[in-house]
């Protein structure tokens, strides 16, 4: 249970929380929330700091503890200031509460409660271990930072990232269907980096039949870099996937449905918490129409195709006032980046009407 911080936090703790929120914004959205942490000594001096950088990497608290060790500082008797209630479960990494207890931290000040049922209960566990624990400091800012992640957790569906590569006039393929490659090597390498962050990558059966993709992720931009598959390679749609399709093999899943919500429910039941949707256009539009896209990476190439397949057909927008205006998202780095000669936009949907 959270406490109202009020005078129960010091000036140093309040300053540390503002810095932790700034650190949190440097992380990568996806299967985990954006979290930052600052470890303080008894006199308020900073011993270490850290933030969660993405799925499979250390959480913010262990990152701050590791930073303190690198600096030659002892965490015993210190205060951990963190933007989210420390987790109390084992996933890709161990429970943060155990790391804090084992390190001898005597006090934890956190912003927002963890709404993820599997990870919640960290504050209670810390108090049972004799650690002073105060919640609620800058809670609104932490909740705003993670509102899309929170919405996906409460809806019991994966966090959805949509990625598109298109021409200046919004085409993903020329009139004859050719699409490889609209964007250059730098943009494609960045796309592989984003693939590697997701639990699953999803395309439609049309993309499989047209392009026969492997849906693997290369860790380096060089063509010789070894591919590594995400947790699942998912094909959505009613059309059968050919037996010799390159996407088949260990980690392959065919969801024989066109229902986006049903597909996300099945993926969630399988433990997928972050899915990257790569298309084609009809699949991308289906996720947009369903209102479940939490972030959008759009790679725009300086080429004009004229005729050809549009990026997002059939969205049901009849007039300009019905259009959804997305917002630039600078979590994890600049919202606009250049991968010569292309430009990448990192976008988030506007907040729902009040």
Automatic annotation (TrEMBL):
A GO BP entry is: riboflavin biosynthetic process
Keyword Metal-binding among UniProt keywords: yes
Q: What is its EC number?
A: 3.5.4.26, 1.1.1.193
Q: In which pathway does it act?
A: Cofactor biosynthesis; riboflavin biosynthesis; 5-amino-6-(D-ribitylamino)uracil from GTP: step 2/4; Cofactor biosynthesis; riboflavin biosynthesis; 5-amino-6-(D-ribitylamino)uracil from GTP: step 3/4
Q: Which cofactor does it need?
A: Zn(2+)
Q: Name one Pfam family in it.
A: RibD_C
- The segment(s) forming the CMP/dCMP-type deaminase domain are 11-133
Q: How is the cofactor bound?
A: Binds 1 zinc ion.
Where are the stretches annotated Disordered? 51-71
Which positions are annotated as binding NADP(+)?
165, 181, 195, 207, 211, 280-286
Name the positions where substrate binds: 179, 215, 218, 278
What exactly does this protein do?
Converts 2,5-diamino-6-(ribosylamino)-4(3h)-pyrimidinone 5'-phosphate into 5-amino-6-(ribosylamino)-2,4(1h,3h)-pyrimidinedione 5'-phosphate.
Instruction: List, alphabetically, the NCBIfam families matched.
Output: eubact_ribD (TIGR00326)
In terms of PANTHER family, this protein maps to: 2,5-DIAMINO-6-RIBOSYLAMINO-4(3H)-PYRIMIDINONE 5'-PHOSPHATE REDUCTASE, DIHYDROFOLATE REDUCTASE FAMILY PROTEIN (AFU_ORTHOLOGUE AFUA_8G06820)
Similarity comment text for this entry: In the C-terminal section; belongs to the HTP reductase family.
Identify this protein by name. Riboflavin biosynthesis protein RibD
Gene that this polypeptide is encoded by: ribD
């Amino acid at each position: 249970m959270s406490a109202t911080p009020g005078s129960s936090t010091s000036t140093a703790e309040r300053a540390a929380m503002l810095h932790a929120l700034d650190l949190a914004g440097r992380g990568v959205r996806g299967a985990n929330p954006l979290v930052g942490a600052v470890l303080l000594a008894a006199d308020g001096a900073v011993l270490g700091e850290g933030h969660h950088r993405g799925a499979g990497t250390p959480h913010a608290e262990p990152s701050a503890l590791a930073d303190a060790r690198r600096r030659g500082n002892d965490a015993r008797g210190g205060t951990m200031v963190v933007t989210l209630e420390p987790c109390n479960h084992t996933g890709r990494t161990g429970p943060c509460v155990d790391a804090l207890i084992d390190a001898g931290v005597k006090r934890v000040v956190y912003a927002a409660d963890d709404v993820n049922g599997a990870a919640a209960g960290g504050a209670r566990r810390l108090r049972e271990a004799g650690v002073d624990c105060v919640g609620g400091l800058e809670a609104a800012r932490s909740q705003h930072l993670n509102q899309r992640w929170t919405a996906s957790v409460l809806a019991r569906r994966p966090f959805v990232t949509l990625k598109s590569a298109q021409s200046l006039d919004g085409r993903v393929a020329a009139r004859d269907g050719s699409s490889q490659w609209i964007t250059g090597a730098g943009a494609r390498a960045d796309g592989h980096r984003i693939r590697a962050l997701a639990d699953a990558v999803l395309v439609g059966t049309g993309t499989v039949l047209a392009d026969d993709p492997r849906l693997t992720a290369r860790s380096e931009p060089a063509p010789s870099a070894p591919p590594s598959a995400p947790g699942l390679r998912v094909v959505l749609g009613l059309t059968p996937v050919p037996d010799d399709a390159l996407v088949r093999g260990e980690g392959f899943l065919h969801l024989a449905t066109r229902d986006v919500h049903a597909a996300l429910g099945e993926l969630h039941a399988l433990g997928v918490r972050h899915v990257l949707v790569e298309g084609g256009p009809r699949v991308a539009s289906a996720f947009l129409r369903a209102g479940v896209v939490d972030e959008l990476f759009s790679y725009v190439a300086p080429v004009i195709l004229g005729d050809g397949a549009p990026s997002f057909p059939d969205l049901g927008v009849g007039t300009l006032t019905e259009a959804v205006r997305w917002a630039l998202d600078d979590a994890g780095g600049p919202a606009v980046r250049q991968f010569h000669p292309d430009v990448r936009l990192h976008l988030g949907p506007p907040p729902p009407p009040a």
